[in-house]
Amino acid sequence: MEFSPSNPIVKICLQGMVQEEQGNPAEASRIFHVAWNEATNDFERFLAAYYIARLQDDTLQQLHWLETAVHHALETNNLSANSALPNLYLKLAACCEHLGNLDQAKNYSAMATAVTGNLSDPGPFYHGTRADMQIGDLLTAGYRSNYRSDIIMNHIYFTALINGAGLAAALATGDGQERVYIIEPTGKFENDPNVTDKKFPGNPTRSYRTTEPLKIIGEATDWARLTPEQLKEWKDKLAKNKGNIIN
After folding, report:
1. What digits encode the pLDDT tens for the residues 178-198?
2. 103 burial level (CB within 10 Å; 0-12, 13-18, 19+)
3. What does the alpha-carbon distance between residue 208 and residue 158 come to, in Å, rounded to a whole number?
4. Rounded to two decimals, what is the model's pTM?
5. What is the pLDDT of residue 213?
6. How far is 109 from 26, CA to CA, in rounded Å?
7. What span, in angstroms and rounded, lies between the C-alpha atoms of 64 and 61?
8. Which residues touch 28 (CB under 8 Å, ≥6 apart)?
9. Beta pairing, strands 138-139 & 214-220
10. In the chain, is it the N or the C terminus that has fewer CB atoms within a 10 Å radius of its CB?
């Protein structure tokens, strides 16, 4: 299944995260357990187990919930969930080391290494912008960030989710028409470190970056446009965000 902020379990987890940020771990844990109990598929169970795990004070319980999260991530065969595996395996290794099970800790560390950088996303891929381009043109890095105008970007970003590219187009600087181009990477690419394993585990938005050009092979027109109210909300949120951009 595709990650969506409108998913009911994602919404419940967001409520739990708010409580966690406000310093209410007991209430956050209760909410995450509600998400677990109401989850209806492996992806939702993976998500709920992940959040339950990180609030455990007892290492054995943390180990149990991390293993549960990994089990459901593997069962989904879902790119968004599988992108969380390197970090999950490292957390499992840390738990095993804390418990004195050094052989298992070593095994989990090796598993983390084995799946790190293992990007198998088949696409199609999209890039959102307001620039007027043609099929065959190349999109390149080296332009100012849409989110921090003082930063010249070393990478160019793209996604496998068309609505994510549509959001990027809406937030792009300039007065041109919002455009979502279908692109083809011309070189190696990596998970976007600005979103991967941040608020959500793994890379649920299937966002990537590369230093190599992106070749435009088409243009998409069917994506969910933001309303003026939604666009303002996003711009206000970005204006308040003082976090650093990993460039």
Report:
1. 999 999 999 999 889 988 888
2. exposed
3. 5
4. 0.80
5. 96
6. 30
7. 5
8. 16, 17, 19, 20, 51, 55
9. antiparallel
10. N
The whole-angstrom separation of Cα 207 and Cα 155 is 12
- Could you give the CA distance from residue 183 to residue 158 in angstroms, rounded to a whole number? 8
Between CA 126 and CA 246 the distance in angstroms is 21
Contact call for residues 167 and 234 (beta carbons, < 8 A): yes
Residues of the chain with pLDDT under 70: 1-2, 118-119, 146-149, 241-244, 247
Give the model's pLDDT for residue 2. Answer: 67
Fill in the amino acid letter for 90: L
Q: Which residue segments constitute the domains of the chain, with CATH numbers given?
A: 8-115 (1.25.40.10), 125-240 (3.20.170.40)
Pick the closest to residue 189 from 214, 167, 164 (CA basis). Answer: 214
- At 23 the three-state DSSP class reads coil
- What pLDDT does 136 receive? 96
Asked whether the beta carbons of 210 and 189 are under 8 A apart, the reply is yes
